[in-house]
Design brief:
The complex is a heterodimer of chains A (274) and B (358).
Chain A: H1 3-9, E1 22-33, E2 36-47, E3 51-55, H2 62-69, E4 77-82, E5 85-87, H3 95-98, E6 100-103, H4 115-121, H5 131-136, H6 139-158, H7 174-187, E7 192-196, H8 204-221, E8 224-228, H9 232-238, E9 241-246, E10 249-254, H10 256-260, H11 263-270
Parallel strand pairs in A: 3-8, 3-9, 6-7, 7-8
Antiparallel strand pairs in A: 1-2, 1-4, 4-5, 9-10
Chain B: H1 13-16, H2 23-43, H3 46-72, H4 80-97, H5 103-122, H6 130-150, E1 163-164, E2 168-170, E3 173-176, H7 182-205, H8 207-217, H9 219-224, H10 229-256, E4 258-259, H11 266-279, H12 285-308, H13 314-335, H14 340-353
Antiparallel strand pairs in B: 1-4, 2-3
The chains are: A alpha/beta (274), B mainly alpha (358).
Amino acid sequence: MNKAFVQNSFEATDDGVAPGEVLLAVENVTLSFGGVRAIGGVSFDVIKGEIRAIIGPNGAGKTSMLNVINGFYTPQIGTIWFRGAERISMKPHEAVGQGIARTFQNVALFKGMSTLDNIMAGRSVMMKRGLGWQMLWQGPALREEIEHREKVEEIIEFLEIQHIRRTPVGKLPYGLQKRVELGRALAMEPSILLLDEPMAGMNLEEKEDMSRFIIDVNQQRGTTIALIEHDMGVVMDLSDRVVVLDYGKKIADGTPDEVKSNQDVIDAYLGVSH
Amino acid sequence: MLYRIAGQFKTNYRADHALFPVRQDAVLLAVILICALVVFPLTASEFTFQALLIPVLIYSLAALGLNILTGYAGQLSLGTGAFMGVGAYACYKLITIFPEMNLLVAIGLSGFFSAAVGMAFGLPSLRIKGFYLAIATLAAQFFLVWLFEKWAWLYNYNASGAIQVPTIDMFGIRVAGPTASSIVQYYFVLLVVGLMTFFAINITRGHIGRSWKAVRDMDIAAELVGINLLRSKLIAFGVSSYIVGVSGALFVFMWRGAAEPNLFDIPLSFRVLFIAIIGGLGSVMGNYLGAILIVALPVVLNIVPEALGLDINAATLEHLNIMIIGALIVTVLIVEPHGLARFWAIIREKLIIWPFPH
């Protein structure tokens, strides 16, 4: 692929968790909206360095689960352990500082901005120079901008989107928008990357590309990935372990092969006569 | 033909982040600056200064301030006129309390007062969005104008209730007051507007500007890339109101000479908003184009018939003027809803690839 990428950039994010240990653990999480119980007492963990898939039929609570993990919802019951510490409660914008990045089911890019600016926006948290230096666009502010630009260019090269660097993302086709969104998430240098249906609505070729990118991110950079996906072929090939939700409950957890042969999972997907 | 990017290679990111990555743009700006600094002052009459050059610059600056809030950060505001008023009254108080103060410093400081007021009225922006926020800023508009009228301390217990610009000298040159010469005021305004524009361009292209645009385009996603919405919006309100306040101080001290509270009433807010919208939201240059269309064109249209030797009575001329400007605004918005600045962007794109269509 590209050498520069492999050599210098993506050292595994240092988050104080050794490979093979638990990076994120969700314990007995319950989330209700009024009378609707979206998630009811779900527990599972994500081990550092793995690709963990969350699957389930529509309305099973998968996206709600991601929203709980990155602080968008606070569960009524249950605890979340991340990087070895219990998380009390957190505002969504603090998630990035903790090392959680995510992409969205429906593309949530900044439509009026170019690809470059979108990915640069992913590094907002790391850019500290205040208004004074920004106004002058000299010295520290310019140095900081260029430093981050270099990192962003590495991501652009990795995702092979050099040709659309200056294009406003609103004008891009869907598959490329998904790729830019992945780029923006990567720019945050997360220790865990949450992908909400990264391949929804893509054709076969785009799916293959995206799968390749996900595997590369995981292997070269050591980023832990939790993904939601409906394409079972992709899920079974990509993921190390799979957790299956149905009606807000966990019905199976294990390797793809275990999950595939689990009777509850088959029932949930195919339906059974009650 | 002339406008080509071919052959201009950037070998480092510093060059790519330059203010004018395309050399021809820098040349164009140089031409405009020479016009603004040398040609206009040498050729302009008293009337041209007072009716065209100075007001266009001041309105551009006010629109620039509003554009940062509305065009970049996506927060609609209808309180611009009142924030200009805060700048003007703050400057007036500073000058009357400290008569020795340099006017440039006083104007710079007065912006902080309007920035503080703007941020206070920007606090609700975290909870309310769009038109509802516009109504909240409308409250600022009415409240502040009421305050200018009722709080006699602001106008030094003047019997007229208006503020009158005193005669002010700076480095031995008369810069404000009834006896100040237009050319000096023009240069003063040009200096302040130029500086503010430079700062605004730099802020909008850095990470603060990106966070504003992110909030504008999709606030939930902005939050999840780690942007603190309240902070980002408040900075936008602060920077925007600062610039608006400075333009308000210039408005009174460099142009009007005196001001009553109702000068800062809602028609002024709308006028600045129109300039920003017609010029192009989310663009710095658009404010200048918009100000030329809204502020300068009516003045020019007023003198055209006379110059052509046509005899039209004043009332008819006034009505014709309003109709022509109105029609132009509607046409511009239909043809290009993104404003005049987008026209320039399209022209640039086409020029670069000319004579080929793609």
